[in-house]
Amino acid sequence: EERPLFIPGHLSLASAHILNKEDELAVDVLKQAIIKNPESEQLLLALTRLHIKMKNFQSAEESLKALVQLKPDNLKAKVILADFYAGRKEYEKAFDTYDAAQKMKPDAPVTYMKKAGLYLQQKQNKKALAELEAGYARIEDSARLLTALADQYIKQKGTSAAIALCQERLALNPKEAFTLNLLGGIYLVEKE
Questions:
Q1: What is the pLDDT of residues 97-144, one digit of tens each?
Q2: Which end of the chain is more exposed for a tag (fewer CB within 10 A), N or C?
Q3: Torsions phi, psi of 171, nearest 5?
């Protein structure tokens, strides 16, 4: 019986087939490995990436859905599925999947960032800003959300709004290096 220990070997063999332009053989290797290791996130993701490379999007979606079903509490799996939908411009499915991920783990900055990015891609700047504000209100210690929010404040409200955001954060922790650096960067932008 195959043990999960041999997953790297299957991945290497599939990679060798891909390098030799034998994508179908790589698919076969990965499918056989998945039969023996049905709970392997690595194998399902490798198969998904290969299906995307081959432009076999229906199979890629099936692989991602299998991963989500296999690990319904796995935030990464849901975000990857949502990213897949976003890449295919299936925005409603993408937002629904990001929302499901956000409900599952509301304290994960990635879902707020991804949704805001998708809104920006669709030129819905106010919705993107609202998403970042909601995320930052919930997860105030996220440097990624703070940076993205300050950037959107600069673009949508001006540098004074971004400066005020940083000053509010510094009022709570005056020596926080990240926010001090961000504020310094904003002042440089303002002078230009």
A1: 999 999 999 999 999 999 999 999 999 999 999 999 999 999 999 999
A2: N
A3: -60, -30
Q: Which amino acid is present at 122? A: Q
**Which residue, chain included where needed, has tokens 């229906």?**
58
pLDDT, tens digit, for every residue of 173-191? Answer: 898 999 999 999 999 887 7
The DSSP-derived string for 75-121 is: HHHHHHHHHHHHHTT-HHHHHHHHHHHHHH-TT-HHHHHHHHHHHHH
Task: Enter the tokens of residue 150.
Answer: 């300050």
Question: Which DSSP string corresponds to 40-69?
Answer: -HHHHHHHHHHHHHTT-HHHHHHHHHHHHH
What was the pLDDT predicted at 2? 47
Q: What is the dihedral of CA 174, 177, 179, 183, to 10 degrees?
A: 100
**Angstrom distance (rounded) from CA 41 to CA 48:** 10
Distance separating alpha carbons of residues 116 and 129, to the nearest angstrom: 7
The DSSP 8-state label assigned to residue 7 in this structure reads: H
Q: How many residues does the chain have?
A: 192
Q: With contact defined as beta carbons under 8 Å apart, do 141 and 118 qualify?
A: no
| Rounded Cα gap, residues 82 and 95, in angstroms | 7
